[in-house]
Amino acid sequence: MVASGLTPEQIEQFETNGYLLLPGELSPERVKTLYNETSRLLQDFPIADHPLTKFSTDETAHVGDDYFLTSSDKVRFFFEQDAFNDEGELTCPKERAINKIGHALHNLNDEFLADTINDRNRAIAQSIGFKDPLVLQSMIICKQPEIGGKVPSHQDSVFLYTDPPSAVGYWYALEDCTAENGALSFVPGSHKWANISKRMIRADGTKAGTTFIQIQGVEPPREPEDGEFVMPTCPAGTLVLIHGSLLHKSETNKSQKSRYAYTFHMIEGEYEYDNLNWLQVPPTEEGGANFTHLYA
Fold first, then answer.
1. For domain 8-293, which CATH number applies: 2.60.40.1930, 2.60.120.620, 3.30.70.20, 2.170.270.10?
2. Does pTM surpass 0.90?
3. What distance, in Å, lies between the first and last C-alpha atoms of the chain?
4. Average model confidence (pLDDT) for the chain?
């Protein structure tokens, strides 16, 4: 049976709002499988030689060490900022200290591969106009109990920049997402007026870290008011499509419940993805970047 794409009504919702919720996209069985696989990864990863890289969405302190910058073809583990005390020691078990796992689950883990490269996701990409969608990063976002960090208002195309901007995120809830455990919230329609005016790049084109630069001639978007954000209900199994220019955020998880999610991002292969981007995919033997083609 050929997988169907989005309905005309769903396409219109996505084009209007910049995001689209598709409840029940993952069956309860698949949700359980991916949740259990996430738990296994968190339990099994070795910590003895880990550089204890912390992940931050703060532009003044964004992660940029070699462990992070060389993770495009690996499965690596990034810690929450608040998982350490002043002496740099973990204050909780390692499996409850990880912010995210990335960035090549879609290539290296069979379970997450199955829910990335499939006919349904291809059909969705076709529905929203992609000609050659390239999957270039995948992540498990853990949003740990009590310490799951706030993610301020941002746009995904700032971090995965093409000319013109083209990033779209597939975001699967592996647990119920609520106001208490840090659910996503969006500014509907902001993808239409919030320009991509900056981008995150490798500092000086090296492995020295990351920085943000302004894009010449592009006016920065205004900061949205808190009242402009909406937080839709997002039960486990829901797929959220997120336009790369959409302003969205999530709050700190102060609850006793985690908020696991699996997400991957694609870009349009017909657009330029240059070597300034922080995430660089290793080359093929022929010399081109070894992107994962969703339609292949």
1. 2.60.120.620
2. yes
3. 18
4. 92
